[in-house]
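I hope you will forgive my troubling you with a question about protein structure. I set the record out below, with my sincere thanks for your time.
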Amino acid sequence: MQLLFLSAYKEIFLEQIYKFKADNTQPKILDLGANIGLSVIFFKELYPEGKVVALEADPKIFSYLQSNIHSNNYSQVELINKAVWYENCLLNFVSEGADSGQIGSTIHQQDVVEVEAVDIAELLSTQRFDFIKMDIEGAEDLVLPRCQGLLDSVQHMFIEYHSKVGHKQNLNEILNLLSQEGFRVYMENPFERSTPFLGLDSYAGFDFQLNIYAWKD
């Protein structure tokens, strides 16, 4: 857990992977997969007058998110203990207790809890966002298609793409959708392997991860 925290802290505050230049001092940010709130803290330090809507599905992690945000006395932050999905429903969620909780996973079945999910289309059709951060542990391939036609106001997106072991990779579909919505992209692999032909290590059911940075000119 401590190593995961340090890794996240390094990415968010030292490497500043979520840093973006907004058109105004009050951007509206949608944080999907807020975890314990480091990303929310970064956004509020970057744009103190901005509003952040943060979703975290894991009920255990959500309590830490609440504590961290409330202890900083931030205003204009809305915390929602729900998963994001392509419809409003109840979902089985594997609570991993750190940063790898997943929807519909078969690992650690003893930690499965039922969580509420909110339709991403509902969020995007009722509010306008300038920036979307999506780190939802493999659910992005199902959630992103639901965003099609609803991203007019969004100028920047950060998407953490996950390749699932034993499943068809659909990175091309995600990139095509972003292109159709008017985004340019830059990608980086935070866990680069020098000899992928010799095999890929997997973690939490994933064998490959990409950070996708998308923006409109």
The mean pLDDT is 92. Residues 132 and 157 are 5 Å apart (CA to CA). Helices lie at 2-14, 38-46, 59-71, 120-126, 140-143, 171-180. The longest strand covers residues 206-215.
